[in-house]
Amino acid sequence: MAQLRPHLVEGEFVARVRRMQGEGFHLAFLEEAGAVRAVAGYRYQDKLFSGKNLYVDDLVTDATQRSHGHGHTLLAWLGDEAKRHGCVQLELDSGVQRFEAHRFYLRERMHISAYHFVIALKP
Question: Which of 46, 60, 52 is nearest to 95 (CA)?
Fold first, then answer.
């Protein structure tokens, strides 16, 4: 997860994930030969415009293990998990700078359905 989210502070990570789990966040990972190869953070949502979906907050494959099918396997598992929970779609956002990830998502037959707009709020 640190490869995808380098801004996170290691000592605060577990406590933050635990708080998020209280709000419905889940973690899943793919392990091979005793090492984590890919990780996903996700949650279930119900939206007026799209219905029930599995939303992927985070999806990352270890940089040294890319192009070995781990991302494909984990994404397929997430799709199956979404179906098991009655979801009508799987959604995720991806930063505009993540070109390699976009190629992967398009190869996996995902399509770009929206723009994501943000306003930073000052405390």
Answer: 60
Q: Which residues contact 53 (CB under 8 A, 6 or more apart)?
A: 44, 45, 46, 47, 82, 87, 88, 89, 90, 91
Any idea which residue has 């306003």 for tokens? Answer: 119
Predicted local confidence at residue 35, as pLDDT? 87
- Give me the residue spans of the domains in the chain: 10-107
Q: What's the CA gap between 9 and 25, in Å, rounded?
A: 19
Q: Is the pLDDT of residue 82 over 80?
A: yes
Tokens of 35: 């090492």
Q: How far apart are CA 48 and CA 21, in angstroms?
A: 23
- Specify the pairing of strand 26-32 against strand 89-92: unpaired
State the residue for tokens 């994501």: 116
Architecture of the CATH domain 10-107: 3-Layer(aba) Sandwich (3.40)
How far is residue 68's CA from residue 82's CA, in Å, rounded to a whole number? Answer: 23
Instruction: Let me know: does 104 contact 92? Beta carbons within 8 Å.
Output: no
Classified as helix, coil or strand, 39 is: strand
* pTM confidence score: 0.86
